[in-house]
Every structure is written in structure tokens, then in C-alpha cells.
Amino acid sequence: MQQEAHNLKGDSPTSSSSLGKNLAPAWLEVDLDKIANNIRKLKAAAGPGVKVLAMVKAQAYGCGAAMVSQVALENGAEMLGVANIAEALALRKSGLRCPILVFGRPDESELGAIIEEDLLQTVFDLMLARQLDRAAGTAGKSVRVHLKVDTGMGRLGLLPREMDDFLDGFASCPNLVLDGVYTHFPVADCDSRFTREQLEMLRSLLDKLRGRGYEVPHVHVANSAALLNRCGETFGIVRPGISIYGLYGSPLVSREINLEEVVSFKARVVHVKKVPPGTSVSYGREFIALRDTTIATIAAGYADGVPFRLAKKGDVLIHGRRFPIVGRVTMDMTMADVGESNDIAVGDVAVFFGESGRAHISVSEVAEKSGTIEHEVICGIGPRVPRVYLKDGNVACIQRYTFG
Ligand SMILES: Cc1ncc(COP(=O)(O)O)c(C=O)c1O
After folding, report:
1. Best of 55, 122, 373 for a ligand 1 pocket test (most atoms within 8 Å of beta carbon)
2. What is the pTM of this model?
């Protein structure tokens, strides 16, 4: 990802006057002050002495991992979580030396990088533990690992009944240090009984580990839902993801802590036309104008992260007013029926989520109307959309994944 310094004080990309080489046609605004506030609130919610491991996988849920990580670390996070080695290496390359936990399984070819870059690596079976142990032995170093146990997620993780065999094998991995143990909750938003049972299971596994002489320094369980719904013990580390970005991830998560949405997705109007009744719009001709109206074509489509399923249900904001999205969302463009408005012109800003004047479309509204979750909406913002970072209300810098 390329980064541009952007010291144009007051040159907000939200103003149509700044249409030009820097920002057109679509961009994601990420408010760094709001990220800072959210992190501080999450840290306070976690309680004294509890560390925050900021989940910045998938380019910090689409917001840009390097920038989000930096702000998170400056505001109380102490560790970072990523899905794979490539993500961890990108963070190291950006100069971050903090503990980074890799949650996914590495390829054998990546084991050297874990050791060289002093990454914390998740393990959940003996095959991986032995591979890593051998690689560390060859390098003459040790590797800190976090053991993931599957207490009910049914995804990655050692099953409780596999623990004894695992520990028998782990005892012959002299180059691995058991630095952490963790599990993951699938229903922390909506099923506290199941979540409590998971915690019970984890506690008995920790007893077993103690019985075998392991004092594990780090134990962690809490995603955003568990932290915000206060689903019981958080141990020494919490692992919020979606809440960093000001989203709750589920309508069933407590709103007691007031988070601020950090992202706004905007694009330029690139064509405006008055059409007569009977005019069809977009592939499939699923929208036919019933009256004289005006169609605004907006320069962002599903390749940019406008959900295809938002058609017929979703709205955009232009000049602080809501207009329905009409016809299918296409790869690069989306159409809105702006009715009789005659103040909408090429270069105006359309907002898919975020604020426009006094109007607001939330990520949760977009998720609900497109039949998905907030996580997918923000992770889905495409690589060709520049990320515009705001600080003190001004553009602090712009990052681009690609130049076009
Ligand atoms: C293992 C693990 N922990 C924590 C999180 C963060 O979850 P959330 O974004 O819901 O806070 C995730 C996200 O997918 C995860 O996979």
C-alpha cells in the first residue's frame, strides 16, 4: 500500500471542490480520532491491568492495518492480532515492533519469518507444533506460541479431549514456549449460557495445564461481543475487532459503551440525467421509471464494496438527503433515483454510509439491508478505494493499495 502525505489543511474530500487527481472517484474516510477514542473506551471496559490485543486482520477490517495499528498502540493497545504471516510482516515492515499474534496456520515456507520477526504464533495441533519447533531449533532460537482450544467455535483449535496427547507431544518441543492459551466464542452476543460453558471448559483445561507444570502467562477469550456484553472473566487480554471501528457487530450487543463509527464510504456523482417514464436502469432492467425522474450515476459499485444486494433496499445520501438506489448495483457504478432534485450535479458527493449534512446511514443499516453483517460490509471495501485518514477533522494522509 502506498501512502501519500496530504497536508491540505481544510481540503476535506467531502467537499465537492476537491474532486480531482487525489480523490476521485470513490474513497473510504477513516477517522483516526474516533479510533483513538474507541480504543480508550474498550481499554477502560476491559478493566485495570487487562491488555488490549487489537484485531487488525484483513487490513484492519478494511480500514488499513498500519495506520489503525499505530493509532491503537498509541491509545492503549499493547498487542496486535492478524490472520496470517503476510499481514504480520506488513506490520513489521511498517516499523511496528509490538507483540503480534498470528491467528492462522502458517505455511512451512513461512516458519523462518515467524522466528526472524519474533511473531507469536497460534498452534492447535502437534504437526504444526513440531514443524515450528524444528524450524526454531535450526535457527537456534525459541518461539512463543499461543495454544488455541476449540471449546465450541468448531473452527481452528485443539479439542479438549485431544489435550493430553497434545501435551505429551508438546513436551518434546524444547524450542517452543507456551506463552498463551485462548479460545473463541461464536455466540457471545446472544447465548450467555453456551459462552459460560465454554469458559468452564477453558478453566478446566487451564487446571490441566497447571497440573502438568505449565504456568501460562497469557489467557484470552473476549472478542467485542464478549467484552461489551461482559460475558464473564476476560483473563489478562481482550481481543476486540469490530468495536475498534465503532461497530457492535450484532444488534444483541450492549450499547452501554458508546462507540463512534469511524468509517464513511463516499463516491462522486459522475452522470446526471433526466429520464421519462418507462426508462429502465441497469442490468436485468429491474427498475423501470414510473414517472419523469432524474437518475444520478455514482462511481462506486460492488468491486468497491457497495453490496450487490443493497439494490432495491438501500439508499445513498446526497446534499444531506436520502435517495433510493435503483436497478442492480454494477461492478463500478451504482444508480440513485434523485427524483425532481435539480441541485445534483457531476462531482457531488454521494454517501453510502456515513454522514451527509444532518443525515446519516450507518454501516449496520447497510448490513441489514444487504442481508449481511457489519464485518463483511467494511472488510468488503475494495482495494482500489483510497483510504483517507482524518485527524482533527482534516485529511492527515491518504493510502492507496493500487494506483490507477
Ligand atoms: C479469534 C478471534 N478473536 C477475536 C476476533 C474479533 O472479533 P470481533 O471483530 O467480533 O470483535 C476475531 C474476529 O473474527 C477472531 O477470529
Report:
1. 55
2. 0.93
